Amino acid sequence: MVEESGVVMQTDNENKKLEEARNIIIDALGRVYALYGLPDVIGRIYGVLFLADRPLGLEDIAQMLGVSKSTVSINIRILEGVGNVRKIWVKGESPGSL
């Protein structure tokens, strides 16, 4: 980490390591959901949302996971149904961020 005028900045190497750890966690959650007979994408969606620092829309999630928006939509409804995620509205954004 580099400190500039009281602000801690992360180096590219640290950012790369954090991204790798994030991907490992997301993939692991996908495998956990698959162990219970659910599509692994549900676990991966949950992982993306759990680790996000802001609400995400369907398009954001689809892009991050490399899946279609309809795949995200279908599986989000399952997560909503069991109470794992909920919709919120963010001012200035399209309705339906999670």
Provide a descriptive summary of the structure in words.
With 98 residues, this protein is mainly alpha-helical. The protein has a single domain, classed as Arc Repressor Mutant, subunit A (Orthogonal Bundle), CATH 1.10.10. Helices cover 58% and strands 6% of the residues. The protein is built from four helices and two strands, in the order ββαααα. The protein has helices at 12-35, 40-51, 58-65, 69-81; strands spanning 2-4, 7-9. A two-stranded antiparallel ribbon has the order 1-2. β1 (2-4) and β2 (7-9) form a beta hairpin. α1 (12-35) packs antiparallel against α2 (40-51) and α3 (58-65) packs across α4. The radius of gyration is 16 Å and the shape is globular. The relative contact order is 0.11.
Poorly predicted tracts of residues:
none
Order the strands across the largest sheet as they lie in space: 1-2
Q: What percent of residues adopt helix (DSSP H or I)?
A: 55-70%
H/E element sequence: EEHHHH
Kindly state the number of beta strands.
Answer: 2
What is the fourth-level CATH superfamily?
Winged helix-like DNA-binding domain superfamily/Winged helix DNA-binding domain
**Quaternary form:** single chain
Coarse structural class: mainly alpha
Distance between the termini: 31 Å
C-alpha geometry: globular
The average pLDDT score comes to 88
Question: How many domain regions?
Answer: 1
CATH third-level topology: Arc Repressor Mutant, subunit A
Largest sheet, described in full? Answer: 2 strands, antiparallel
| Tally of helical segments | 4
Q: Tell me the strand percentage band.
A: 5-15%
The top level CATH class name: Mainly Alpha
The rounded Rg comes to 16 Å
Q: Give the CATH architecture.
A: Orthogonal Bundle
